[in-house]
Each structure stands twice: as structure tokens, then as C-alpha cells.
Amino acid sequence: MEIRDIRSVAVLGAGTMGAGIAQVSAMAGFRTLLYDVDAERAEAGLSRIRSELAKGVERGKVEAATRDRALAALEIRTALPGACDGVDLVIEAVPEDLALKISVLREAAEAAGPDAVIASNTSALSLTEIAQALPDPSRVVGMHFFNPVPRMKLLEIVRAYQTSEETLAVARHVAERMGKEAIVVQDVPGFASSRLGIALGMEAIRMVESGVASPEEIDKAMKLGYGHPMGPLELTDLVGLDVRLAIAEHLHRELGGTQFQPPQLLKRMVKAGKLGRKTGEGFYKYPQKN
User: Fold this and answer.
1) Is the backbone of residue 158 left (phi > 0), alpha (psi -120 to 50) or beta?
2) How many domains does the chain have?
3) Is residue 289 part of a domain?
């Protein structure tokens, strides 16, 4: 099967994930349009990319020529139709709200045209349900990236019930261009990565809650005993306690079982605004930039 040439990518949402996806897209040589409804957030996303690329050059991980080409390929947009007009691939990275994702992707699909592939970066929501709400469900696929996107090798491609072979092939091709290792999973709640990660994360939080060990000791057990690069509580702080709570609640509703049931400690921390790195405190404390 001949794979359609992908030249341009629209990334919807300029937060941490969206900016990371836009960075790897531009570095892969795609013309990349980074959209956010908030102009300040769009500019902040572009600034984050510039900073990450500069650090990469300083550390010898990124060639100066690659940085320059990536920045030249990047543009920001604050109007959704203008961001998606005529692009080959749309990657949505807005908050984990099904109604919001469907609304954004409907508008994006209309602007992008009948041949564009429509991808969602959702970590847990149903791609089949998202696809069914769009004009051509066969062109919809999940492309679940991992944070920090430029450094994490995995890309989880999620096949909705309606996803065509051609759409799946495009997602694989784009993953390869971006330097990612792709796995393909079926559209079940939590896919593979979130389902496993949430089960481990919730159990680690329950262990803290019941006094089994400190967050430091639990994380050290997984890093030294099982070779994890980051412990489950460090990862929860990185992703955001509010984000992990929302995913856990979704999986518990869909799948049942105590393994996904959010511990009371997690709920209390979220209510207290201790969301992890983004607020300066979660299971660990983090210095905040002025």
C-alpha cells in the first residue's frame, strides 16, 4: 500500500504536550502549525520549544542546523480554521474532555479537508466515540505521545473501530519520521500504557496512604528493582495529580475493579492544589521559577 505523503501538521493545543509534539514534528521536517485559542499560551509554547532546542544544542544532542530548520518550519496560530486549512495531519492535544475534543476536532476536520488524517493525543478516552462524531471516522486515529515528548521514544497508536489501514499506515510513517518507536493497540479503556501506568500509580499512592513506605522509598524500589527510569510517584508529579485522578476515575467507571479506584489521598491532594511539578508540590516539592 502506498503511503500518502505528509508535508504539513497542525498541532492543536500549545501546552506542555502540544509544544512537545510540535517540536518533534518540526524537527522531523514537517511544516508545523501550533494552535492555541489563547495567544499568550501559543507564544509560551513557541518559547518553550526554542528553549528546549537551545538546551539540546548546548548538550550536543541537537545539531544547530536541525534547530534552525525546526524553528523555520514552525508557525503559531490563534484561529483554528487558519491552523488546519489544507494540512495533511491534525494532532489534537487539548485537555482530556471528550466534548471539548470532539468540538475542536469537528472544526479542524472541516478546515483541513476530506483527505487529512485526524489524530488525538488522548491517553484514555474512546477513539471510537471520537471518530463516530467526525465526518469521516475512517481517517481518525489515536497518537498518544509521552511526556517529555522530545525525549520519550514511545508512541502509542490507537486504532479506533473505524480506523482504516491507510490511516494506520500514515500514523506509523509519521511516528518513524519523528524518531518514535510505535506500538499499535486496540481502542479499549486506557489502551495499554495508561491502563498499566494508572494501576501501578494508584497502588503506589495507596502504599503511601497506608504508611508502607515513603514516596522516595517506593520510587527507589521501582527504579532499582525493576529498572524504571522514573518512579510511579515521580511520574504522577510530572503528569499532574489532577490529570491522573481524571484518568483513574474514567478507568474505574469503564472497567471497575479496585486497581483503578483513586485513593482518598490523591483526591485530598488535588483538592488542596498539590498537583505536582506544575504547582510546585505533589509527592515531592519543586522550586518554582519567578
Assistant:
1) beta
2) 2
3) no
Cell of 137: 471516522
Does pLDDT of 290 surpass 70?
no
- Tell me the mean pLDDT in the region 45-51: 96
**Cβ atoms within 10 Å, residue 122:** 24
163 and 205 housed in the same domain: no
| 104 closest CA partner among 12, 5, 8, 196 | 12
On whether both 45 and 96 belong to a single domain, the answer is yes
In a domain, 1, yes or no: no
Same domain as 169, residue 65: yes
pLDDT in tens, 86-112: 999 999 999 989 999 999 999 999 999
Integer-rounded Cα Rg, in Å, for the chain is 19
Domain that holds residue 263: 195-277
**Long-range contact set of residues 72-76: C-beta below 8 Å, sequence gap at least 24:** 73/26, 73/29, 73/30, 73/31, 73/32, 74/22, 74/26, 74/32, 74/34, 74/46, 74/49, 75/31, 75/32, 75/33, 75/34, 76/14, 76/33, 76/34, 76/35, 76/36, 76/42, 76/43, 76/45, 76/46
Q: Which amino acid makes up residue 4?
A: R
Q: Is 182 contained in some domain?
A: yes
Give the pLDDT confidence score for residue 148 in this predicted structure. 87
pLDDT in tens, 202-228: 999 999 999 999 999 999 999 999 999
Each residue's pLDDT tens digit, 129-147: 999 999 999 999 999 999 8
Say if residues 283 and 233 touch (Cβ distance below 8 Å).
Answer: yes
CATH no. for residue 226?
1.10.1040.10
d(CA 45, CA 282): 24
User: Do 96 and 199 reside in the same domain of the chain?
Assistant: no
Mean pLDDT rounded to a whole number for the chain: 94
- 2 within a domain of the structure (yes/no): no
Cell of 167: 490511516
